[in-house]
Write a structure and sequence with these properties.
The chain has 17 helices and no strands.
């Protein structure tokens, strides 16, 4: 647990630093663009990210699980082909997502009377989607325990975005230039991830996936593609709540409200990233523990991480209630203070969503992706029902109320399944293994 906490703290150092850098970049954008143009920027990013996450395979999740099973075989060629399988999925998903983002932008403008500039900013961001091939690279770094490196790669890209935003803020640049700034920084982030991942593979003696044999990947790794499709479907459902929500707010209100909501959500992402970082750290270990049937450590890890998350997010929520409004006015301008109430409500939702993050990782390690998918589907239906009812009545904060409902239901369903699974009677094989170990 100490080693895992150290890894989390390394990730938090880099990601919290990156969060402040991101807030600095957003502050420059809000002051340069104003509420309406910033709202268009937010909706453009939302279109790209929605299309990317619906189509893109979360290839690191099946890779981590299958690599954990393959490590004992000590077959570098087979590992290289496994990573190639993930890389192929990354490339296919990126190409389709980039094209889809353009089609969606062209359809949304006349359908919801969105500003025409939306098409231009989505076209710029499509280049970032096309080159965002991080799934395989992320799996390599996670399995190598290189969490500090992952954190600081994100920080480097974030600092580049801040530097470029500052330069173009001084130059008085407009909407398209700021979207280009976000695009370039994301491309640099993806390139750094892949450079370090391929270097790590070479260091550990695994041949480059680019030179691996392509034929019969599905036959040699049965179940991999099905696992990838299931986790991708689960990710696509999460996209409706985590990315498409900005578009829903824009469609039911206006671009300024979408900007306020996007600003609050980006600030809340500082807290959300804590859960994402912890999932990065514990998922490979949980996969190994479950494969080795070490249930005691499995339980302790989940409970310890949930307690750590509750303390972190609780402290952030209290600090936001006390200091959030003046800080928003200082950083982004008085025109953006309506984001304060949205931020507080969103952090309550984050507290619930992050409580379920360790349970989700554990169920994936148990090879229960179908249940995770079903939970995401049910919770997404509840989210949409609350959002479509609350946003017209309460404005953008109605989307945060929908997130609270989503987080509460997800936490209950995942926890129930996890602890029920852990309390089932041990299989005969597990009892036999423990008897042999005791003798």
């Amino acid at each position: 647990m100490r080693r895992r906490i150290e890894s989390v703290l390394h990730l938090m150092t880099g990601n919290v630093g990156n969060a402040f850098v991101m807030i600095g970049s957003i502050a420059l954008a809000t002051r340069a663009l104003g509420p309406e143009a910033f709202g268009i920027l937010a909706m453009g990013l939302a279109v790209g990210r929605v299309c990317e996450r619906i189509v893109r395979f979360e290839s690191w999740q099946p890779l981590v699980r299958y690599v954990a099973s393959e490590e004992g075989a000590s077959d570098p060629e087979r590992l290289s082909r496994l990573y190639l399988f993930g890389l192929i999925l990354d490339v296919i998903g990126a190409v389709v997502a980039a094209l889809l983002s353009m089609v969606v932008a062209l359809a949304l403008v006349p359908l919801f009377d969105f500003p025409a500039e939306l098409v231009t900013v989505v076209a710029i961001y499509a280049f970032a989607i096309l080159l965002n091939l991080r799934g395989m690279a992320s799996a390599v770094l996670r399995m190598a325990g290189m969490f500090r490196t992952m954190a600081y790669i994100v920080f480097v890209a974030g600092f580049l975005r801040l530097l470029l935003a500052f330069i173009f803020f001084l130059a008085g640049s407009g909407l398209e230039v700021f979207m280009a700034v976000w695009t370039v920084s994301q491309i640099v982030d993806a390139l750094l991830f892949n450079y370090i991942a391929f270097r790590q593979l070479r260091r550990q003696g695994t041949p480059s996936p680019l030179r691996a044999r392509v034929g019969n990947l599905r036959r040699d790794f049965p179940g991999f593609l099905g696992f990838a499709f299931t986790t991708n479907a689960s990710s696509a459902l999460r996209t409706i709540t985590h990315e498409a929500d900005t578009l829903i707010v824009g469609a039911l209100t206006d671009s300024s409200s979408a900007g306020f909501y996007h600003l609050a959500k980006r600030m809340a992402k500082v807290a959300m990233q804590c859960g994402e970082m912890i999932q990065m750290v514990i998922y490979p270990d949980l996969a190994r523990m479950w494969a080795d049937r070490v249930r005691s450590d499995f339980r302790k890890t989940i409970l310890g991480v949930q307690a750590l998350l509750a303390g972190i997010i609780g402290a952030i929520l209290v600090g936001t209630i006390l200091l959030g409004k003046p800080l928003i006015a200082f950083a982004f301008g008085v025109a953006f203070t309506p984001a304060y109430a949205i931020l507080v409500a969103h952090l309550v939702a984050v507290l619930l969503i992050l409580h379920s993050a360790p349970s989700r990782s554990a169920l994936l390690a148990m090879n229960r992706p179908t249940y995770v998918l079903a939970t995401a589907a049910v919770s997404t239906v509840v989210f949409l029902a609350v959002a479509l009812h609350a946003i017209p009545i309460y404005g953008a904060i109605g989307a945060s109320y929908a997130h609270i409902a989503f987080g509460a239901l997800t936490a209950v369903l995942l926890d129930l399944a996890l602890w029920r699974q852990l309390h089932l009677r041990d299989s005969p094989a597990e009892r036999s293994d423990r008897l042999e170990a005791g003798s």
